[in-house]
Amino acid sequence: MGADFCFAILPICKMNPQRLAEARALIVDDEDYEVPREDILSYLECYDIGGYEDLRTVGHLHLDGLVHYITGGMSWGDPPTDEYDEFNRLDNQIGHLLLQWAKEDREAKP
Fold first, then answer.
1. How many beta carbons lie within 10 A of that of residue 85, not counting itself?
2. Of 10, 11, 29, 13, nearest to 84 (Cα)?
3. What distance in Å separates the CA atoms of residue 50 and residue 100, rounded to the nearest whole number?
4. pTM score > 0.90 for this model?
């Protein structure tokens, strides 16, 4: 067997205290992968402060008028980047909110 190309994306939106509180309230332990809520909250904090902006393993993808973070690469059964798992865990729990907020931000632009 060979390697597979895997990638994960997250919509980029402007966070504010209200959005952050709403997202935090939805995050729970990821029991399937034994990831505690605190770890997933740390991924959200990284997202909130723009911590994914300057990483070599994260880029930007323009899709349907929105900008998304993208990460990934070749995988032999393990995650291609550390951010890959983080993005998937955030997407599974609050991806729908991030997408909704990114669309709202796009509509609010003058």
1. 19
2. 10
3. 19
4. yes
